[in-house]
Amino acid sequence: MPEIWVAVQAIARTRRTLVPLGLIGSSLAATALAAAALAQQGSGKAPPAEIGVYSGRHYNTDKELYRQFTARTGIKVNLLEGKDDALIERLRSEGKASPADVLVLVDAARLEKASAQGAFQSARSAALLRDVPVNLRDSKGRWYALTRRVRFVVVNPKQVNPASIRTYADLARPGLKGKLCLRDRKSVYNQSLVADQLLQRGEAATRQWIKGVVSNVTQPFFTSDTPLARAVATGECGVGVVNTYYVARMLSGEGGAQDQALARNLKVVFPNPAHVNISGAGVTRHSRNPKAAIRLIEFLASPSGGRGYAEANHEYPLKGYGDNAILKRFGPFKADAVTVEGLGAKNRAAVALMEAGGWK
Amino acid sequence: MTAAGKAIAVVQPSRGVLAGGVLLLCALALAPIVALLGFAALGEGPAALALGPDGREQVLNTVALVAGVGVFGAALGTATGWLTACCHFPGRRWLRIAQLLPLATPSYLLAATLVDLGSRWQLRVHGLGWTVLVLTLSTYSYVFLLATESFSASGQRQLEACRSLGVGPWGSFARVALPMALPAVGAGLALSGMEVVNELGAVELLGLPTLSSGILQRWQGEGNPEAAVGLALMALLIVSLLVGAERQLRGRSRRWVQNQGGDAPQRWPLAGWRRLAAQTLTLLPPLATLGLPLLWATLSWDQLQGESASELLALTGRSLLLALAAAVLTVATGLVLAIARRWLPSPLLQRLSFSAGMGYAIPGTVLALALMLIGGPLALSPLLLLLWGYGDRFLAVAKGGLDAALERLPPSVDEAATSLGCSWPQVLLRVHLPLLREPLLVAGLLVFVDTVKELPLTFALRPFDFDTLSVRVFQYASDERVGAALLPALLILMLGLVASLALIPSLESDRRHGG
Questions:
Q1: A220 vs chain B: nearest CA distance in angstroms?
Q2: To probe the interface with A, which of B472, B479, B507 has the most A CB atoms within 10 Å?
Q3: Taking CB atoms and an 8 Å cut-off, how many pairs form between chains A and B?
Q4: Is B297 part of any domain?
Q5: How far is CA B302 from CA A254, A255, B262, B306, B483, in A?
Q6: How many domains does chain B have?
Q7: Which residue range forms the structural domain that includes residue B148?
């Protein structure tokens, strides 16, 4: 590697020029940034043909859809993607000065939390009432679902008979001791699953269920879904609970050939009835352009726009089971009757039960 | 304060300006903490400090983590620093440079690659041990940088005296070099301790419940930001105790170096198993921190999802711009505070400027919340808030090294300059800046690399359509889409590597003297 060494020596020799050069470059950068910041400060108010979107979803294909929306309506979309809770907090602290018109969040509990904090305004439109099923939207019109995802069960058939699992309740059976693997309590998807059980089966049964499930888990709790699905596929675990799109993603080959081969080892089971979660959006309370905001939500919830939003991430559209070949292979499922609004409302109670039950 | 105090007595004029500047900077740096205190008080008050069911475990894990990373990081950083500065073995020069490589790898990236690689090979990467390993690898470079600079810059004469008196390598290390390097090691340790307490990404990925993950849990899981802030303030308290202890230690070992450079440094030659051990010890950590992500990238190459070149360029440009601006701002602030610490004897100012560095210990998410609390009502531009956040967070990184460097400059330097008629700005420009050039460069580059890797502040405070590389990596990684995270992650590594390479001249400065 003599060339590199020569380069390094050259760098060492030119260091006297490097330092001032670096300083000049850095000062320029600082000035440019400050100027940009001030310019932004000056042009605080957005012209009417622009809307700001705060989104907890991060898919490049989402951006493509926003571009389509702009092409169709002439309304420019300014996008800020972030973590859902941080976005809610940012919106709250910005108050009336917030540049956001639409807030897109993932998971029922977060939508409900944002509603409770007054992040949204009520907005109604015939198109939304038509396109979004009643159990997938807020009763006061503060938010509307855009896509659906199911928390289903993956099974390694060499370890566990897939037919032995028909409902979430079956996961608490003593026969699964040491075979069940779960993601931790921090996962908002698990929180919503427990909230779902609370709504369907009541507190006593859910407490009992958590006890059974937790005693079946002998390995450390997982921190994400994909490694959990892999562990079931390799036989380290016999059964796991994950969101549909993680397995679909593995099967699609997006995660590489190895993941694809692993995912083929998995048998997937939709518990009957299945727990359905959503990503959704609402018009922010201090939106300067609520009309344009509702048009974007209508577009995303419409069968054409919504399909793009869902398919990018192998999620289910608001109605039906999608055209995606992998989702078709998963087959249909029977969604439970719980409203998404109810899931959000029970979130805190669910987390408290999980804590008390030793769900790490 | 005694000896430094004398220097101040000589450096007279317009101290008010300096004091005013320090007050202003400290006010800016401390404003978020004050905002947090107010916010916590609005909530449940002292009840917010209640730990909750997992609290005990979180505190214990945090303490164990800080202790573990502290012990291993100090040992590794000091050992590599000493070996590559004061011993002679084949490959020394390259291995010395290699110690900078871990700076380029964000700890969340290292943790994510380990978890991902592990789950392919049926190994659960999980828990305290792994977390200590990851965080030791990603933070020991701070100790190394500050310690090795001290080993090679200071006290060659003393080491030569050791030789002439027949004290061996171990004796000269333990009895002379180490005590002299203690301020630097302490500063490095304080940095790594703060980094460990506020670490979130790696800790979450490795499933270790700590205070910082508890904070997030309180805030986001339970929708209780006030309680989260309470916990954050508690973490801050733990860190202030740590840093206070480090100050005490440093105060007791204050020594100045009378000669700068001059003669060719003499190194202890190593042979046999000692040579092999030295090579292994200095090779393994950089190999792991750079090699694992690269291995992971190679194995995941089939999942690569391209992003358009213009998009990647824009992401890189923003990362670069933010990092350069943050480096200038932070180093300038750090320099003012470090100089004031030397020249202004007021204990109040000293304490203020000390606590101004505490922003580093606040978890980034909480600091972001604090800045939103301040910036929201004032409708400050997100970019200004973001730069403010960087400055606040990385001030400790810049200041630690500058403080340690200034401590090695004997006050007689200032005295000589003033007795020759220099005013204090002249002393600063003509004496300190030239002498501090390398520590300033090191500080600037550290802040640069840290900003490129920085996540929570950038994530929470950036304006519309202003994604950076680290934001992109995190978004994809948190969606468990490794393939899409690949290119931006490699670009972060590259930016970090380039910046680390720029540190080489300052590491190799001893060569000028004929080494």
A1: 8
A2: B479
A3: 184
A4: yes
A5: 9, 8, 54, 11, 8
A6: 1
A7: 2-7+15-32+54-256+277-505
Amino acid (1-letter code) at residue A36: A
Q: Cβ contact (<8 Å) for A113 and B223?
A: yes
Q: How many CB atoms lie within 10 A of CB B199?
A: 27
| Nearest-angstrom CA–CA distance, A124 and A112 | 17
Query: Which residue of chain B comes nearest to A112, CA vs CA?
Result: B223
Residues in chain A closer than 8 A to B213 (CB atoms): 186
Residue A126 to chain B, least CA–CA distance (Å): 30
CATH at B482: 1.10.3720.10
Task: Tell me which chain B residue has its CA closest to the CA of residue A109.
Answer: B221
Tell me: the pLDDT tens digits for B476-504?
A: 777 777 677 878 888 888 888 888 777 77
**How far is Cα B396 from Cα B393, in angstroms, rounded to an integer?**
7
Gap from A94 CA to chain B (nearest CA, Å): 4
Contact criterion met (CB < 8 Å) for A58 and B479 = yes
pLDDT tens for B274-313 read: 889 999 999 999 999 988 888 888 887 777 766 677 888 8
- The span from the CA of A213 to the CA of A176, in Å, is 9
Amino acid A288: pLDDT: 92
Reported pTM? 0.77
**Helix, strand or coil, per DSSP, at residue A158:** coil
Any idea which fold A50-148+277-311 has? D-Maltodextrin-Binding Protein; domain 2 (3.40.190)
- Domain annotation covers residue B271: no
Q: Is B267 a member of any domain?
A: no
Question: How far is the C-alpha of A27 from the C-alpha of A35, rounded, in Å?
Answer: 12
Return mean pLDDT, chain A: 85
Mean pLDDT lowest for which of A139-153, A209-223, B197-211?
B197-211
What whole-number distance in Å separates Cα of residue B177 and Cα of residue B147?
A: 10
Tell me: pLDDT of B46 over 90. Answer: no
Asked if the model's pLDDT at residue A47 lies above 80, the reply is: no
Q: Give domain status of residue B41, yes or no.
A: no
Q: How confident is the model at residue A43 (pLDDT cuts 50, 70, 90)?
A: very low
Q: Is B299 or A317 the better-scoring residue by pLDDT?
A: A317
Does domain A149-276+322-356 sit in CATH 3.40.190.10?
yes
For residue B376, give the chain A residue with the closest CA.
A94
Q: Using the 8-state DSSP alphabet, how is residue B276 labeled?
A: H
Q: Which two tokens stand for residue B146?
A: 């500050």
Are B104 and B496 a contacting pair, CB within 8 Å? yes
Domain segments of chain A as ranges: 50-148+277-311, 149-276+322-356
φ and ψ of A153, to 5 deg? -110, 130
Nearest C-alpha of chain A: how many angstroms from B373? 6
Contact (CB<8Å) A37/B383:
yes
Task: Please judge whether B116 and A184 are an interchain contact, meaning their C-beta atoms are less than 8 angstroms apart.
Answer: no
pLDDT of residue B214: 79
Is the predicted pLDDT of residue B102 greater than 80, yes or no?
yes
Which chain A residue lies closest to B384 (C-alpha atoms)? A37
